[in-house]
Please model this.
Amino acid sequence: MPNPRSPGRRQFLQAGLTAVARLSLPNLYRLQAQTERPNTQERTSVILVWLRGGMSHLDTYDPKPDAPSEYRGPFTPIDTRAPGMRLSELLPRHAAIADKFNLLRSMAHLGGGHPAGSLQLLAGDPDPQDKLRPVYPDFMTVAHYLRSDVHRTMPNYVGVNPIVNYDNFTIAGPGYLGASYAPFAVSGDPSAPNFRVPNVGLDDPRQAVQLRERVNLQRTFDTFRREMDRSGVMQAMDRFESQALNLLTSPGAATAFDLNREPGHVRDRYGRNQWGQQCLMARRLVEAGVEIVTTTFDGPPCGRVQNWDDHAVNQHVFEALQFRLPTFDQAVTALVEDIYARGLDRRVLVIVTGEFGRTPRISYEPSSGGGVASAAAGTVQPGRDHWPRANSMLWAGGGMSTGQVIGSTDRRGEDVVSRRVGPHDFLATIYQHLGIDFERVTIPDFSGRPNAIVHQGRPITELLASS
Model:
């Protein structure tokens, strides 16, 4: 059998597809040929805004003004456009459009660490212990695996500042499906003046013509090997390289990733900052046909430790929230408003969540270092710790009836008291939106054994499309 890694093949890649090789999309798509499936239904999409570290539910989406002082934060709840829904005063833009989203206040699971909490929620991993890397594929990978189409010019799973790590732990990923199903990753700050997504689109159209001519020439040389290749490897390589080449040379792909195509006032409305422009790119990508988009809110807009992990040793939890929530408020609401204004609300589902909530009881510890939203080292300051027993999420779009509050926690925000849901209910709801039959679909593990993608989970009916 001809070897696709032979010197001649390497010379071909070096001569004609250097950029494509750097992009590594042939490898990314290689194994997907086995999973091509016809799908005639309308393509739906999911945008997941991930709050790495876990946002305090009490100070944002589930305020508890009647809680004892050792639980209650300093922020006053405010009314919203949705009757009965109250939010933190730090989210005035959310309040103004509360009729366009739902709040789920009753998510609970057993993952108390960042890795375990992330893997429980995103992949349905039942293990309450942290692990260095995922075993089970996350829902983004599963959807990517089941809905792959090597003839697309756009990847169907893109991570704009993707969900990858927490410290040295990998908190999301393909697990036993393998690295070829990882997202097409967009790194860097999209608000930076010199930001550009590498290896998507060529600046000079003549380069695209030359590159395709080289590919066609090489395929002519490969005719004999292709005819001798009874395993189909060469034909598969041709398809994978074609898709990578399509992304590199597609004007449509280049346009989708180019935020400079947006009017200035639209970019301003999202916020000329990392999170705002990540959300704007996510909207552009689902409009262009990408089905799964994740975007992580972390980095400098978070404060000193650059995430939402607001232990007292890390930062002053209330100063950190005052620092970051205006940026968060603007970016999320601009995305939600745009989904509705542009007629995407039935096919695009937007979810905003972290891996868990924060402890209702406020803790006090000496700061480990000064910086944005943190006092000098040794200064005692307030914080909130990990709390998987209650978490709040925002859901918008997806054709659902909005303006609802689903589930509730007790007076102190410690435990769910109504409509408790878990990670597999979360997953079932997303799969239902995507048109994936989670009750019957299985995927093979390392040994080839079929595995269910949801275990005893049911869709959260309030978050499904209304008729």
Q: What stands out?
A: Confidence is low (pLDDT under 50) at residues 1-40, 207-215, 217-221, 224-240.
